[in-house]
Amino acid sequence: MAIKYSLPSNIDPARLPRHIAIIMDGNGRWAKQHKMLVAMGHRAGTENLREIIRNCSDIGIEALSLYAFSTENWNRSKTEVDALMQLILDFFASEIDELIQNRVRITILGDKAGLPAPQREALTQAEDRTRHLDGLRLNIAVNYGGRAELVRAAQALARDAAEGRIAPEDIDAAAFENELYTAGIPDVDLMIRTSGEMRLSNFLLWQCSYAEFMFPETLWPDFHVADLHECIYRFQNRERRFGGR
Ligand code: IPE
Ligand code: IPE
Ligand code: MG
User: Fold this and answer.
1) How much is the pLDDT for 2?
2) Is 25 close to ligand 1, i.e. is its CB under 6 Å away?
3) Is 189 part of the annotated catalytic residue set?
């Protein structure tokens, strides 16, 4: 059995973020720095995933959402898209057993129907095999776009209204949330984007309404547990007001 991660003493276990989201950015720049092909950067960017997920699970984070592939990432070259798709398969093949052992429940955020069959099947299977588990909620965003998610929710509610299952005036934030991929999962408390870029790139638009944002300069393949702890420490030193005084 691997070591169990614990929290450094400067972090208060009673005030952890319930939901952490990460935009794993900087693989391309990492590859360039190391004079490697971009696919190698993406591969390096899966090697730290295990420790980050494991740590979140061990320290008692409720939900971790990882941005793996956006609806806009199809605009990259076929070679790069193919490499990313292969990595998604490799990740689930190598990690699923340990994830299940750690009671991690996997949810895919995004349109699985728009993926090639092998990826669609692997992701669906990962969800099916972990649906009953009660540990960390691990959300992996693949073929995900925040706007597409909101449009999809609006369509579902419009359909319900048109077919008489809900009155338009009964559509509230809770009903809307219920149609998102993250239904039942608390809002994002801490949003981390690595590599110094300061934008959301269409990730979790609804869920980030009151998230605290961190933009570490570290490129994603170089981001390790100590960096995550640093973000959590800084999160605990932010004052969250939610519009109040
Ligand atoms: C993020 O790394 C991973 C994905 C978008 C899949 P990038 O490939 O965007 O890395 P940079 O931004 O080019 O450095
Ligand atoms: C966001 O990163 C998507 C993922 C990390 C999966 P990008 O690198 O694709 O975003 P932009 O193009 O810089 O906004
Ligand atoms: Mg990028």
Assistant:
1) 62
2) yes
3) no
| Domains contained in the chain, number | 1
Report whether residue 28 contacts ligand 1, using a CB cutoff of 6 Å: yes
The label of the residue with tokens 């899966």 reads 46
214 Cβ neighbours under 8 A, 6+ residues apart: 190, 191, 192, 193, 231, 234, 235
**Residue 245: inside a domain, yes or no?**
no
Q: What is the CATH number of the domain that holds 20?
A: 3.40.1180.10
CA 224–ligand 2 middle distance (angstroms): 19
129 close to ligand 1 (CB < 6 Angstrom): no
Written as six digits, the tokens of 213 are 């944002």
Q: What are phi and psi of 109, to 5 degrees?
A: -100, 125
Q: Could you say which ligand is closest to the alpha carbon of residue 40?
A: 1
Range of the domain at 112: 16-236
Across the range 81-98, mean pLDDT stands at 98
Per-residue pLDDT of 163-218, as tens digits, reads: 999 999 999 999 999 999 999 999 999 999 999 999 999 999 999 999 999 999 99
